[in-house]
Amino acid sequence: MEAKDESSGSDSPAEQASSGSEEDSQEELKEYVPSEGSDEEMKEVKIEKKKSKKGKKKPEPEAEAEAEEEKEKVPAQTEGKRENMQDLLSSLGVHSALKKAAASEGLVYPSVLQRQLVPLLLKGEQKHILVKYEDAGGIKLGYLLPILNAILTKKEGEAQRFTVLLAHSKKRMGELEKYAASMTAFCRDAVKVKALIKEDSLSSKDLPHILITNPKVLLPLLADKGVLEAVTCLVIDQADFHLQMEYKEELEKIGKMMEGTGKQIVMTVKSVEDTDAAVQEVKKAFMPAAVVIRFKQAAPLIGMRDDL
């Protein structure tokens, strides 16, 4: 907001020169802070440097009114009241073992993606979700934490939860396995994680809670009706990379096997654009009516880990 000069009469040449110099020296600073309405939108708040004490002073009532109006423009988050990771997990009723793991991993603040995706998956109301994101999204925690929480909070008498994480490469499989191990550091006895790099047998009577593998290995395993029926959630991690590794045919076959089963399916794509026709085809095979969520890269918060 610009200050108005309410004084009457003409200024002296010296005063005019001083006033002009001060106006020219004024700089407009821009601070970008998250909007209260949406995490993804950024709200521009303009703040002007105050004039030098040598300049004309504004009447006290006007100065106070402007200060109050400026304060209302800035969300509470700029005052150091942003929600940290532990507060978020506590508000969502996440299992204590996972809260401890997040703290030990040094996760101080959740990313924009995590603040929106974790509650969505915890509710479990949306069966098919396509997540399109950019770098520094925190995608692994975004989908893995709700999966682990469902395993740890399973009620007595309910069937064992069996989640399949599809990785596009041996390297990515290792990353997911390592991350799953770190997040289950305080509940290893309660969560069994297994990685299959090559084709192997898997009995429906001895399933892990989480199976990490690739589409080529998973396809023959699903031929066992017991294994297929036991799957509660399927995550296709970085589907665009799967297509680069020529897994399109296997993915489409898996999609047909999953069709009409009502199982939860989460697909992630490391891009917010819709230009990849192959990704659209795979999406159609798995979940034509999926909820699509896009997370564009936003300014990171201090203490937020770039967990990809």
Q: How would you describe this structure to a colleague?
A:
The chain folds into two domains: 13-79, no CATH class; 85-295, 3-Layer(aba) Sandwich (Rossmann fold). The chain has helices at residues 13-25, 60-73, 85-91, 96-104, 112-123, 139-152, 170-183, 215-221, 225-230, 239-244, 248-258, 277-286; strands at 28-34, 42-48, 128-133, 163-166, 193-195, 210-213, 233-236, 264-269, 291-295. It is built from twelve helices and nine strands. Residues 1-10, 17-56, 62-80 and 299-308 have low confidence and may be disordered. It has a seven-stranded parallel β-sheet with strand order 5-6-4-7-8-3-9, sandwiched between helices. It is globular and about 50 Å long. A hairpin with a 7-residue loop joins β1 (28-34) and β2 (42-48). By secondary structure, the protein is α/β, with parallel strands linked by helices.
Write the layout of secondary structure elements.
Blueprint: H1 13-25, E1 28-34, E2 42-48, H2 60-73, H3 85-91, H4 96-104, H5 112-123, E3 128-133, H6 139-152, E4 163-166, H7 170-183, E5 193-195, E6 210-213, H8 215-221, H9 225-230, E7 233-236, H10 239-244, H11 248-258, E8 264-269, H12 277-286, E9 291-295
Parallel strand pairs: 3-8, 3-9, 4-6, 4-7, 5-6, 7-8
Antiparallel strand pairs: 1-2
Helix pairs in contact: 5-6, 6-7, 8-11, 11-12
